[in-house]
Design goal:
With 488 residues, this protein is α+β, with helices and mostly antiparallel strands. It folds into 2 domains: 240 residues, Glutamine Phosphoribosylpyrophosphate, subunit 1, domain 1 (4-Layer Sandwich); 172 residues, Rossmann fold. Helices cover 28% and strands 25% of the residues. Strand 16 and strand 17 form a beta hairpin.
């Protein structure tokens, strides 16, 4: 089955790092799948290639639907939602990983397994860094894989466990797994949520009427009218039934290493992380950036939409006026016609247009969330200069991205990351701008609420994409020849 959008072409977001998944689950409400569909719609920014929902009703058993494309294009159809009855459901949205465009429908989660004590479905956000080694072992022992997803390893490990109930089998399986995982799973009577011991990827618990919800972000609780209760803690498993929430700690306790890029870009600005507003953290990043990298200019302009809160913070701290110098076409989404070479050459202009009357003759500070390959940054700079800007200065709301992520983020190979091969001055020359400055790692930590900055002996977050310090060694990648920072 081909993707729903065979001519996907994203001129701007193609030069961004992407989360690969969002998860959502509900128990104890009528037509739970409808609530899950709404939750997945709110999490669409975490995965736009495909989505899936599994539901359970005693009289109908387990039912599932997996589709390519947006949630709004699939899971809003009454004819489809009627096939997903019950008061218990989980769902998943995904991006494909690098190089896997056109993935098969069998790779779309949630995955389902039938065990001796009943069926179970599982949806996973993150990445298993020893998945290839586990897959080889499982295949040698007779497991037959139906997908190319590393998440399917969890189902097979559960099938081989000797534990007597599904939550215990899941504990068994996840103890074998390395990397990052936030899991939402379901049996016939239980909704289960688990985070790895480092808590790299997010997962939150909400209350809706007499029922409960699990979600990657709080913004998805808002859309269904659920009350945010708390975050599922690193290393915690919650098992939710009609009796309530039971919490256990199946993994060895470790210092948490939540992904700091969730603060910078991945999470929606209206979500709450660690008790902090994502929007406020991003605004504070702009404040720190203005303190660290001031420059004389006439206008602070965000690269929409992800650069907007930081630009507001930069303008407020610097005293330089804020202006919408670049306007995003909110209805572009994906190209509405096949992207011929001529359309591809339009590039960024398909999504962004310069507000010429505001830009002309101005010294402009452009605030963006990150620089990955640099291709989009160069095109935006050219658009600003073509509009008559006197100077263009880039201020970036994250440190240089010089290392790939192996914990659930679609990252180019290291040699394709601009910061991996160039110094800041070389990047400035390559982009052709008057100045280029990134926020420091300490500045980013301060903006995220760590007043003393980064604790280098025991970092408070996972910042491997900036520092090259991986809290869990990427075993599969090392086997393929990837060199860690210490080995260089």
């Amino acid at each position: 089955m081909p993707p729903a959008h065979p001519f996907d072409f994203d001129a701007v977001d193609g030069d961004k790092l992407h989360e690969e998944c969002g998860v959502f689950g509900v128990i104890g409400v009528s037509d739970a799948a409808n609530f899950v569909a709404l939750g997945l719609h709110a999490l669409q920014h975490r995965g736009q290639e495909a989505g899936g929902i599994v539901s359970y009703a005693p009289e109908h058993g387990f039912n599932s639907a997996r589709r390519f494309g947006y949630v709004r294009d699939n899971f809003t159809k009454q004819s489809l939602m009627e096939t997903l009855p019950g008061a218990l459901a989980i769902g998943h949205v995904r991006y494909s990983t690098a190089g896997s465009k056109g993935a098969a429908i069998r790779d779309v989660q949630p995955f389902f397994g039938e065990f001796s004590m009943g069926g179970a479905a599982i949806a996973h956000n993150g990445n298993i860094t020893n998945a290839e080694a586990l897959r080889r072992e499982l295949i040698e022992r007779g497991s037959i894989f139906q997908s190319s997803s590393d998440s399917e390893c969890i189902i097979h490990l559960m099938a081989r466990s000797l534990q007597r109930d599904i939550p215990a089998r899941m504990e068994d399986a996840l103890r074998r797994v390395e990397g990052a995982f936030s899991v939402v799973a379901m049996t016939r009577t239980k909704l289960i949520g688990v985070r790895d011991a480092l808590g790299v990827r997010p997962l939150v618990l909400g209350k809706i009427g007499d029922g409960w919800a699990l979600s990657s972000e709080t913004c998805a609780l808002d859309i269904i009218g659920a009350e945010f209760v708390r975050e599922v803690e690193p290393g915690e498993m919650v098992v939710i039934t009609e009796k309530g929430v039971e919490s256990t700690r199946p993994f060895r306790s470790r210092n948490s290493r939540f992904c700091i890029f969730e603060h910078v870009y991945f999470s929606r600005p209206d979500s709450i992380i660690g008790g902090r507003s994502v929007y406020e953290t991003r605004r504070q990043i702009g404040v720190e950036l203005a303190r660290e990298a001031p420059v004389e200019a006439d206008l602070v302009c965000p690269v929409p939409d992800s650069g907007t809160p930081a630009a507001i913070g930069y303008a407020h701290e610097s005293g330089i006026p804020y202006g919408m110098g670049i306007i995003r076409n909110q209805y572009m989404g994906r190209t509405f016609i096949e992207p011929t070479e001529q359309i591809r050459n339009m590039g960024v202009r398909l999504k962004l247009n310069v507000n010429r009357a505001l830009i002309r003759g101005k010294r402009v500070i452009l605030v963006d969330d990150s620089v990955v390959r640099g291709t989009t940054s160069r095109k935006i700079k050219e658009m600003i200069l073509d509009a008559g800007a006197a100077e263009v200065h880039f201020r970036i709301a994250s440190p240089p991205t010089s290392w790939p992520c192996f914990y659930g983020v679609d990252t180019p190979q290291r040699e394709k990351l601009l910061a991996a091969t160039m110094s800041e001055d070389e990047m400035c020359a390559h982009l052709g701008v008057d100045s280029l400055k990134f926020i420091s790692l300490d500045g980013l930590y301060r903006a995220a609420g760590e007043a003393d900055g980064r604790d280098n002996s025991c970092p408070q977050y996972c910042d491997a994409c900036f520092s090259g310090e991986y809290p869990v060694e990427p075993a599969d990648m090392i086997e393929k020849g990837f060199k860690l920072k210490a080995a260089e």
